[in-house]
Amino acid sequence: MRKGNLRAGEPFKTVYYSDPVNDDFALTHDHISNREIDCDVEYSNRGVLWNTASFVVYRLVATPLAYVICKVGFGLRIKGRRNIKVLRGHDKCGYLIFGNHTHFVDAFIPTLLSFPRKASIVTSPDAVSVPLLHNVVEMLGAVPIAPGLGGVRQLVGVMKKKVRTQTLTVFPEAHLWPYYNGIRPFPANAFSFPYLLDSPVVAYVTTYRKRRVLSNVLPPAITVTVSTSFYPSDYSNKHEMRDAVYAYMCDVVEKEGSFAYIKYEQRAASSLNEGDD
């Protein structure tokens, strides 16, 4: 990692990566022991006390806090919000939200986009592995998936019952790259969900704007651009649907001119080989 000079127009820092698909720059990555998730994980029917606490934490604490953090702290602007509003009244099959993963407020944005529905977010075991906090994280909507097909079936079974009152958010890039101003390659695996749930996908893209004031001190502001719906019936398979969503995301980043607060550079092949010695 190399620090830059914002005053001179350089990125805040340069981060070097090896694998654009599997590298993870989340603060918790490799610093906590992952909780074991099995196919019997309980996604619902956890009792009156737990559900009441979940409502209080999510609706009375997290939702207003998310609004303040995103709007006041990061100057959030949302473009295309109407594309979600048109789904709320008439679409009985619910909808899924797919977004790029470049900021810790990614955990809050689906809540603001989905309101008044609750936003459930597919997460890795990392998100629910922090000691003493895993219950709170799950109350906030985190849904860890057990490995393998069994875990997917369990989640889909629950979401089929909740899809009219909740949304399911997926970050197909899977790993967090803070302030990355592009779209990383991602597989088509997550695009099984629209077909299994018979639900459309609304994609959103987070991009960054250089602030007009205190830009040398504060991180950039956030713009979220929301797509029109992608319906699984319009595509032959999940791979075609993945390609359409990926193309949309890349197009938004190019049009918005996302500000490079952090620059990512791939390590040279010679550096990778030296690291293996």
Q: Can you offer a commentary on this structure?
A:
- The protein is of the alpha/beta class.
- It has a single domain, classed as 3-Layer(aba) Sandwich (Glycerol-3-phosphate (1)-acyltransferase), CATH 3.40.1130.
- The chain is 34% helix and 19% strand.
- It is built from eight helices and ten strands.
- It has helices at 48-74, 82-90, 109-114, 134-139, 149-162, 192-197, 238-256, 269-275; strands spanning 2-3, 13-17, 77-79, 96-99, 118-123, 142-144, 166-170, 201-209, 221-230, 262-266.
- Strands 3-9-8-4-7-5-6 form a seven-stranded mixed β-sheet, with helices on both faces. A three-stranded mixed β-sheet has the order 1-2-10, with no helix packed on it.
- Strand 5, helix 4 and strand 6 (142-144) form a beta-alpha-beta unit.
- The protein is globular.
Tell me the fraction of residues in β-strands, as a range.
Answer: 15-25%
Structural class call reads: alpha/beta
Give the end-to-end Cα distance, rounded to a whole number of Å: 21 Å
Q: Can you tell me the residue ranges where pLDDT is under 50 for at least 5 consecutive residues?
A: none
Name the CATH class: Alpha Beta
